[in-house]
């Protein structure tokens, strides 16, 4: 790069580089193997998932944690962190490692400081004079956006994960009902269902495996089931846990309770699908009115409007 190149050209080159990089990353995400392909590969190869997964942490993750630690200290709460809402949201998102809070709060602090700097740099390069008050307001808004953007991403991850758990849970309950009625105990039935659900939902399988490990470690069925409801944050799983605990206490049939609950969850899943299908017509109104209808109006009425304009112009003469 020549030393006398002006700053606007440097900014344009940087934007072109970012656009090309984003296009390459988008093509990679689009063309990578889907989850269905990976499941089929596991079925064909006959790979059986293990109950205990070896923890693996690459070197770049450790480097990110080291870099994020000083920034995380600026925003992580000093007291009451274990009982905070963010801690529960991280747990519901499946981020249970010790480095997850450090990376999360480090990213919050970094974005809260980086976005105002980028905005100030962009305004300086553009040569606009916004005034001190407007500049302070804009930088404050950028700081707030950068600080709360990770919360929005975390909420999105939690929502997708809970949706997957809700959709896969009725099938797991059917398998659990068959195993219990076949004579297996609750812990053995959960272990069997966890191994079978790997092909359907790895998230639910991992949660059930953690329940089995807690039972085998001597934590007790009630505590393991309550921890399952706490980790997932799904209301239907919490209801099932309460039902299983009551069945264990009063000695009622677990199979009948599981069958009734699975039928209720399946009906609820079908109702959600019907509700989403009914909302499609309403959601299509906005793109139809804003995008398709103006184009159709121009194509259909455009020639007529031009002809009427020519006729009116001749009358005026």
Automatic annotation (TrEMBL):
- Superkingdom, taxonomy of origin: Bacteria
Instruction: Indicate the secretion signal residues.
Output: none
Enumerate the spans annotated as Type II secretion system protein GspF domain.
173-300
Q: InterPro entries, alphabetically?
A: T2SS_GspF_dom
Keywords tagged on the record? Cell membrane, Membrane, Transmembrane, Transmembrane helix
In the bilayer, the protein is annotated as:
Multi-pass membrane protein
Where is this chain's protein located in or outside the cell? Cell membrane
> Which stretches are transmembrane?
12-31, 98-123, 135-154, 284-306
One Gene Ontology cellular component annotation held by this UniProt entry: plasma membrane
**What name is this protein filed under?**
Tight adherence protein C
User: What is the species listed in this Swiss-Prot or TrEMBL entry?
Assistant: Quisquiliibacterium transsilvanicum
Q: What is the lineage of its organism?
A: Bacteria, Pseudomonadati, Pseudomonadota, Betaproteobacteria, Burkholderiales
